[in-house]
């Protein structure tokens, strides 16, 4: 019973990690698109300073969210590793 419960718990954590990693990937794609948009705007910079500032602000938010998700994934992976070590002992 404990092994089944532990396995179920590990599966849930694994799915959460995969979901978080997927979310990180999506945000990094969005981040690259924003950087590309900023680059294009800077090249033509005909009074687009306000637009660039808005994009940079959005980029800061995405960076913060990516960092949070990466920290959560790392924390979950460390917890899974600790549980696995205890299980193997």
Number of domains: 1
- Percent of residues in beta strands: under 5%
Specify the biggest β-sheet.
none
* Broad shape: rod-shaped
Query: Which CATH architecture would you pick?
Result: Orthogonal Bundle
Uncertain stretches of 5 or more adjacent residues:
none
Q: Helicity level, as a percent range?
A: over 70%
Q: Describe it for me?
A:
- The protein has helices at 2-44, 49-88.
- By secondary structure, the protein is an all-alpha fold.
- The chain has a single domain (2-88), classed as Helix Hairpins, CATH 1.10.287.
- Helix 1 packs antiparallel against helix 2.
What keywords describe this structure?
single chain; 89 residues; mainly alpha; Helix Hairpins; 2 helices; 93% helix; rod-shaped
Question: Helices and strands in order, then pairings?
Answer:
Elements: H1 2-44, H2 49-88
Summarize the structure.
This protein is an all-alpha fold. It is 93% helix and 0% strand. It is rod-shaped, with a radius of gyration of 20 Å.
């Amino acid at each position: 019973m404990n092994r089944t419960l532990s396995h179920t718990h590990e599966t849930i954590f694994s799915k959460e990690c995969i979901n978080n990693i997927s979310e990180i990937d999506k945000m990094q794609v969005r981040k690259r698109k924003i950087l590309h948009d900023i680059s294009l705007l800077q090249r033509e910079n005909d009074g687009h300073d306000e637009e660039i500032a808005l994009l940079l602000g959005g980029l800061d938010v995405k960076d913060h969210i990516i960092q949070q998700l990466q920290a959560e994934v790392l924390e979950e992976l460390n917890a899974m590793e600790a549980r696995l070590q205890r299980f193997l002992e």
